[in-house]
Amino acid sequence: MPVIEYVYSAHSGYAYLGSSELMRICKSADVVLIHKPVLLSPVVDAQRGQSFRKRTQQHVDYFFGREIERWAEYREVPIINYRPSRHDADYSLASGMIIALGETGPMTDRMAHNLLQAHWRDDVDLSDQAALGRIATEMGLDAETHLERAASREVQETLRKNTEWAVSNNVFGSPTYFVDGDPFYGQDHLTLVERALHTPFKPGNWSNPSVA
After folding, report:
1. In sequence order, what are the residues at sequence separation of 6 or more whose Cβ sits closer than 8 angstroms to the Cβ of residue 168?
2. Where are the domains of the chain?
3. Distance (Å, rounded) from C-alpha 51 to C-alpha 47?
4. Closest CA to 188 of 83, 84, 50, 67
5. What is residue 212's predicted lDDT score, i.e. its pLDDT?
6. Whole-number Cα distances in Å, 145 to 73, 91, 137, 142
């Protein structure tokens, strides 16, 4: 059975844009999806990437005002037309809500999608315990118990280890999908992810045709 290791942050706009398509691919190809939520800043910093806080306003406006909206239209995904109000808030508890359900399975899939959707469709603050509790309740979970588990030392240590794993595996950002160890960065590469499940890329098997 094929496996995809799914590396993402719980507040990632592009993870949200690709979430439904990723689930479709996994269902179609009978894939085991392994969730690896991470804290994004340490991953980006390790690759010497530039956080949005350090980018020009023009770059931020393009990213949130054009690129995300175009992909949302293409994927037919509902999304707010502005940067989420609390996008820079601490999302470690939200990440813990995913991890607490296990690294794979339908409930983990649902929680990941529901958190991303809440943030990008409904402008939910992912550090707001009451809001997170409502998401848990809507999924049929005991909110208090699940939030306590999400905040536990064990779960938060898994989040830390996921982040370290991403750094050691040269992840650039969120989302990144690993198919048999081969990384694909960005939801715009999901077509190639799907192809790799049945036709793995073999470096050196393709070359540019001669130019006369």
Report:
1. none
2. 3-196
3. 11
4. 67
5. 45
6. 37, 18, 11, 6
Residue with tokens 């999302």: 91
Whether 2 and 179 have beta carbons less than 8 Å apart is answered as yes
Identity (one letter) of the amino acid at 117? Q
- Residue 189 confidence (pLDDT): 96
Single out the catalytic residue among 12, 92, 95, 174: 12
Average model confidence (pLDDT) across the chain: 90
pLDDT at 201: 77
Is 12 marked active-site? yes
- The closest of 29, 22, 21, 20 to 7, measured between CA atoms, is 22
Give the CB-side neighbour count of residue 160, counting CA atoms within 13 A.
7
Residue found by looking up tokens 């040269």 in the block: 170
State pLDDT tens for residues 49-93: 555 556 566 666 666 667 888 988 999 999 998 889 999 999 999
CATH architecture of the domain covering 3-196: 3-Layer(aba) Sandwich (3.40)
Looking at residue 157, its amino acid is E
* Residue 8 token pair: 């993402």
Sequence-distant contacts of 83-90: CB under 8 A, at least 24 apart? 84/11, 84/119, 84/120, 84/123, 84/124, 85/123, 85/125, 86/125, 86/126, 86/127, 86/128, 87/11, 87/119, 88/53, 89/125, 89/126, 89/127, 90/127
Assess contact for 3 and 129: CB atoms under 8 A: no
Average pLDDT score over residue span 150-154: 98
